[in-house]
Design goal:
heterotrimer; A: 192 residues; alpha+beta; Arc Repressor Mutant, subunit A; 3-stranded antiparallel sheet; two-stranded antiparallel sheet; elongated; disordered C terminus; C: 271 residues; mainly alpha; 2 domains; 9 helices; 3 strands; 49% helix
Amino acid sequence: MAGKSLKAIVESLLFVHEQPLSLDRLALILEEFERADIRQALEELVADYEGSERGIVLVQVAGGYQLRTRPEQADYLRRLNKTKGVKFSQSALETLAIIAYRQPVTRAEIEYLRGVDSGGVLKNLLEKKLLKILGKKDVPGKPLIYGTSKEFLELFDLKDLSSLPTLKEIQELAPPDPFADQPALPLAAEET
Amino acid sequence: MAGKSLKAIVESLLFVHEQPLSLDRLALILEEFERADIRQALEELVADYEGSERGIVLVQVAGGYQLRTRPEQADYLRRLNKTKGVKFSQSALETLAIIAYRQPVTRAEIEYLRGVDSGGVLKNLLEKKLLKILGKKDVPGKPLIYGTSKEFLELFDLKDLSSLPTLKEIQELAPPDPFADQPALPLAAEET
Amino acid sequence: MQDTLFTEAMENAYQVQIEQFEGPLDLLLHLIKKNEVDIYNIPIAAITRQYLEYMELLKELNLDIAGEFLVMAATLLQIKSRMLLPVERDDEEAEVEDPRAELVRRLLEYQRYREAGSDLVARDLLGRDVFARKFASSELAEMAPEEEPADVELFELIEAFRKVLSRVSVDSFHNVGADGISIADRISEVLSLLHEKRTLRFDDLFHDGMNRDLLVVTFLSMLELCKLKLIRIVQVESLGAIWLTATSEEGAVPENADIESDFEGEASVGG
């Protein structure tokens, strides 16, 4: 049966571990196995990965063994990063949230709520087309006013802005209950 | 020379990516290759990992492909990580099951089926990213509707929602059930 | 003394048992199983009696009874009384439903999902039975993008909003400055600090001992200074430290502060 051999065990350990694993460490973890057998399993694995047409190699680095991709693959791996889709930092998320819930809103209002300069984030969100400029506010300085775009709705799979859950709805899920000790009376309408 | 074939490239992409990779995504990244060839490379890889005495398998999960260790290795891997893994309460499991099988579903429906307030559990599952809010139901009160997330599929080793095991039928126990096929729940106004 | 000990032991014993029940449906299923009765033909009187005894026990032990248990008790009693009524024979074609039918459906459905839940948890769970490489590979780290990648969920958006609101307590702005330092005073304090150090950590302006008013005044001073374009407030990375710099000093301003030109209309933040 597959997966039971020492080689398979060592392989899986190497696979999930972020840092290189030394023979010492492996021997410690796999106490029921002989150190020599573990060493042999490692050597066999190195040969297995090297010999065949593989995208991964088992290399000896920093006093241990580590599975790594082949350097030839670097170009392709780089593409993985490029196509990651929309990325969100915490600050982007905060800004987006403020605009979603407070629109129409000006930059000054956003910054008032966030307490930090938000120009960079705004620009970024505009570039990602998640925001749109709704116009200018009729106050001194005529600041731009922002709202969310159609793409925003698509990102969150929302039919329209009214389908945005409210803060209250989330808080209602698990409110700190001051009346925890008082069970509802059985007379109440069955609303559960 | 090793590492240049499409199979090797796909393997290395799967290796470095934290989430499952879909065929669509791979086809997008590897634009100079034919989709059919990529699919074949994936199938060959699945067979390669399955056939030999390996510690890793390539599985289809959450709409994509992901390298994972074999369940037989779990004991050894736990020694490495000292993680106990996820623990679920009975209420979390019940709630997850209801949402998984009945989505999109409202809190009121969940609570009707469970017979207890489920706000706290819902919030917890949302925080764990196992659920997502799908929007609001178009009925009076506009309650939020919930569904399971991609993380749910990943966690429970499911290819997609249709690979959920079929619910055990009530009929097994009983005379033919005239109320099969998920009847609408007899909830009055949907107020959560 | 003996008595108290005994009661406590009893209570603990029951508590363990009580916690097993997720709710009234769970309890009812337990009673049905214990009595080995047919779920399609529940002896409603007997089950109701046992259910109420259990409630009684909870009450004696002074344990909280969740509202749902009481609602179910009422439902059971209602079914029981309906069972006692003679079935009206008037309209033959509309078949009278068994008063228990609705409850039976709920119980069966509940049981179904409970089983589905245990089937789920018996699968090969990621992080428990099977493992994936859940870390950024070093191969990618070298070419990582600046921003954190994230599949963003609606819930996260609301959480972000909640966090913003919890940081800025709106009503705290209404009772500012009854006594203590004025915004103007605080502005000159901040400015003179900035004059000495060129850059300041946001956190440095808030000490543990500060009262609420001073916190608010400090915050408002910073906003005012921003408005007057005397300082810049920047955060180099998300969740990283927030820095204040005097605008006259050019050097120390991190890159992402170069937005003014892109927002001419916003240049004079005002209102």
